[in-house]
Amino acid sequence: MDDLYRELILDHYQHPHNHGEIPDADISYEDSNPLCGDKIRIDLKLKNNVVEDVKFNGKGCAISQASASMLTDELIGKSLDEIKQLDKQFILDLLGIPLGPTRIKCALLPLKVIKAGVYGINAWPGEEEEE
Amino acid sequence: MTHSGLNVAAIREDFPILQQTVHGKPLVYLDSAATSQKPEAVIQVLDEYYRKFNANIHRGVYYLAEEATARYEGARKKIQKFINAKSHREVIYTRNATEALNLVAYAWGRANVQEGDEIVATVLEHHANIVPWQLLAKEKKATLKFIRADEHGLLRADDIETMITAQTRLVAATMASNVAGTLTPIKQIVARAHAIGAVCVVDAAQAVPHMPVDVQALDADFFAFSGHKMLGPFVGVLYGKRALLEKMEPFLGGGDMIREVHLEYSKWNELPWKFEAGTPAIAEAIGLGVAVDYLTALGMENVRAHERAITAYALDKIGAVEGIRILGPLDPDQRGGVVAFSIPEAHPHDVAQIFDREGICVRGGHHCAMPLHEYYGIAATTRASFYIYSIPEEVDKLVETLAKVRQIFKA
After folding, report:
1. A7: nearest CA in chain B?
2. Which distant-in-sequence residues (6+ apart) come within 8 Å of B308 by Cβ?
3. Nearest to residue A1, comparing CAs of B404, B128, B177?
């Protein structure tokens, strides 16, 4: 009935991929969306600067959790440099749903977390979702 | 709802925004705790001000400036009467209720709270009545403590007695919670604060729009509320007891708040203008005066009766939804017109989004009360809030849509 909540999104929300933690993660970062309190933490295990394993943990709305589930699926096998190239459009294409200005922040939270984690928060060039 | 004394059908005609459709559905506005809608009379007076009287106040000797000043000060007297303040000098216009609370923290708190003193707030507070006290406590090395609530969102009577001690200099408490809806025993809190010589700051942002208030009967020292939640434009108000305000240094410095300025020193203007630096929100203040007229004509007892009735109806209907959790007391006598809830299937953000498709405006999130949500172990809630124009049919629409949400999210 609702294109925003099509089956793929709901399936990732209710049965998220890569959900959990990596105790000896090489990179681990967490952030939240102050508007709604959505929280995402992503753990990465690397081998030669390539993602060998990834897990995410968090709570939040269907959009942010489905986005994390789909994004983490894409991360395995990618190098850190490749992760740095991921952008907003990449996430929007993954989700494939129209998003308003408020919900786009939900969708982009996981990307924000992974980029801040990969760059290191101080070296991170900027807010991905700002336009 | 006619037994409340409000003619809600006629009231709804006064609100142009309610006449429209959103996403092809009639607008159902259930977010008045965030900001209320504005009646035609308020919208018109803003228009009239800019067309006929726009000028800066307090300085000009020409017709426009005098008219603008008279209307701005006239609105202050209406507000004074509405909350039963002793003098118009005790009514200060601010940007919003948040600024009103910060004014107290800055101008009273910094001069009167010392290292080792205690500030006592409650777990029901909006961020606006927590963060200014955190900043003050940090600066002064004072301790910030919180009166707890029970599982029904009622403040614990024993905490009111034991948390407020001889070391307490300031007590900050809400009169009505913006999430749990709780009407707090504010008179008792003020009395307890006074018994040990502390001042009491009341956050009345969710109270003044919805029920009769009397700052003298309450004996509140400071009392903050916002015009935009009570049919008015975006302007806030701080009431303060004159004896306290007279002793305080200014909050912001600049034009209008001074009597004399020399290069080395200045003398402050008298109350209330000592606390109104710079050009204020003139049209908005005048608009608030008209909003006060509108509410006064309805009768605040009638407003409260109507909201109590629709809240009781909502508690019944929403409460009957399987698996739902409603925050706050379930007795409508103990709460204002705010119903925050959570359902196990869906996050409030998703609930609010699906509601939007049906033309229903509700809030999904923590409603600027993260500590309260943490306290109850919930990340966020969906909140419906009511006002004079809310009708039972809107509650029915909400409950129907809740069923749709559960249909979409059924695992």
Report:
1. B408
2. B4, B332, B333, B337
3. B404
- Summarised one tens digit per residue, pLDDT across range B54-76 is 999 988 889 999 999 999 999 99
From the candidates B368, B372, B380, B402, give the one annotated as an active-site residue.
B368
Q: How far apart are CA B288 and CA B36, in angstroms?
A: 12
Quote the pLDDT of residue B69: 96
Q: Quote the ipTM score.
A: 0.80
Where exactly are the structural domains of chain B?
A: 8-30+299-408, 44-296
Categorize the per-residue pLDDT at A98 as very low, low, confident or very high, splitting at 50, 70 and 90: confident
Q: Does this chain's domain B8-30+299-408 share its CATH topology with B44-296?
A: no
Show the low-confidence residues of chain B (pLDDT under 50).
1-2
Supply the pTM of this predicted model: 0.92
Nearest to A35 among B347, B350, B365 (CB): B365
A60/B364 CB distance under 8 A? no
Question: Of 3.30.1830.10, 3.90.1010.10, 3.10.20.70, 1.10.10.10, which CATH number belongs to A2-119?
Answer: 3.90.1010.10
Inform me whether the C-beta atom of residue A38 falls under 8 Å from chain B C-beta atoms: yes
With vertex at residue A127, the alpha carbon angle to CA A125 and CA A129, rounded to the nearest 5 degrees, is 140
Are residues B365 and A36, on separate chains, in Cβ contact within 8 Å? yes
Q: Is residue A61 within 8 angstroms of chain B, CB to CB?
A: yes
